[in-house]
Predict the 3D structure of the following.
Amino acid sequence: MSLLDKVPGDLRLYIGGLFTLRRKQALQEANITHVLSVLKLPLDQGLFRDFRHMVVEVDDDDDEDLLQHFPATNQFIQEGLDGGGGVLVHCAMGKSRSATCVVAFLMQKYLISPSEALDQIQQSRPSCDPNEGFKAQLELYHRMNYPKNVEESYQYQKWLYQREVEASNVTGQAPEADKIVFEDELSSPQCASVEFELRCRKCRRALANSGYLVRHVPTGINWDEDGMTIDSSEPSPSGCAHHFVEPLSWMRSELEQGKLDGRLECPKCKTNVGKYAWQGMQCSCGHWVVPGISLTKSRVDEVKPRREATATMRIRKPPGSQNL
């Protein structure tokens, strides 16, 4: 197999491994003008003397965030192609990291799926195969519709938050405060339609609405207060004792303390209205929810909003706002 493989099609786009840079004659014949290096290994800068060079320092690990670099790598590749020369994208082996960046470019340019883009690359370089973490990031990039600024995307911020939650399960530590996503501070698509809102039973302060609920399917196993199981022949949503919700801005002072679990108090009357556990919580129906951020049904009321109030609830509010 050649160490300088061209992506099939009209583009002068090539993919390879680290040793491809030693093939001077092949690089000249391909008229390579731009080189994108996607790796952390120390690089001999003399190898790039004749090229426009960009480096993205990531390891070939599932938990590396390569997604944040896609807009920049796409732009670099396109600039090289627009200049009339060839572009080489390489990593250590020309298999995972470089393939991921080329797939992201082809997806954006031709509006195709990750699998379609990878199939195209594998026609000339069958060994290309991004790791599972990068594949998931490519799927997310596809669902995000290739934004110019990934870091401002709602989906990206949610993805980072989920990664932090997963890490908390592994390390036994709460997520970093700046990684927690407070759903009511974002333009969340979940809140396009509000069926009801949850209000503190004591003071009537609005705490959440149906758009912020974390839905789960009851397992049919119910638990009493002592942790003993109660037989249930069929799952019953009404048997759940909790409303599980996304993090909301009124919870900020509690959730940013770095504790693994704790109580949630109504910001107005200070009544205990729920609890949270970053490593997860088991609902009374038996379902395990991670992270577990819950409002106790006996402490809140479901209230259907007035029609004129519904539009207000869709508006993004600043931190600490009294209205959702």
Remarks:
- Residues 102 and 125 are 12 Å apart (CA to CA).
- Helices lie at 24-29, 70-82, 97-110, 114-122, 132-143, 154-171, 252-255, 307-313.
- The longest helix spans residues 154-171.
